[in-house]
Amino acid sequence: MNNFVIKTKRIGLRKYRPTDLESFAAINADSRVMEFFPEFAKLSPAEAEDVMERMNARIDLHGFGFWAAENLDDNQLMGFIGMQQVPYETEFTPAVEIGWRLAVDYWGKGMATEGAEACLSYAFGELKLKQIVSFTTPLNERSVRVMQRLGMTHRGSFDHPLIPEGHLLRKHVWYCLESADY
Questions:
Q1: What is the pTM of this model?
Q2: Which residues sit opposite 134 in a β-bridge?
């Protein structure tokens, strides 16, 4: 029933189910979770459902995506962890991005790092990718620390094309990990 694509000691990564909607919508409506995502703002339940459907479609198309992250202790949706092709043009695209978004209750417990490490193994092992990137605003120190714990190297900064000029969060830093260095 669980159909996990990736499983760690504490996390199962899988496609989204209709039963995830309430938790997914709540996570994406939490201003603390969405603090560094101005291009998405807070999602309504209908918008959250649409995002889940689009994430599942990308998983079906590419064999990977931002999977639903399930806490194996209580089978609750924690958020998402996974990879996707960067859907816009920057200095480092085309590229596959690794990312995470977890409910506040799961912050500071190593969950993002644990899930992302498993994704890196999948990316470089199963998918035979040559590199993975990750990026965020430099103000998002928690995510920057996860990138560093994953062994990713700071490669530079860029203006995020989905964030308007002059916006506090437009400037982003990007990190990279090459398969040869993994």
A1: 0.94
A2: 175
CATH fold of the domain at 6-181: Aminopeptidase (3.40.630)
Q: Coil, helix or strand for 21?
A: helix
State pLDDT tens for residues 86-119.
999 999 999 999 999 999 999 999 999 999 999 9
Question: Domain boundaries in the chain?
Answer: 6-181
pLDDT in tens, 3-14: 999 999 999 999
Please answer whether residues 115 and 13 qualify as being in contact, where contact means their C-beta atoms are separated by less than 8 angstroms.
Answer: yes
Distance CA 118, CA 81 (A): 10
Q: What is the phi-psi region of residue 3: left when phi exceeds 0, alpha when psi lies from -120 to 50, beta otherwise? A: left
CB 13 within 8 A of CB 4: yes
The closest of 83, 91, 104 to 161, measured between CA atoms, is 91
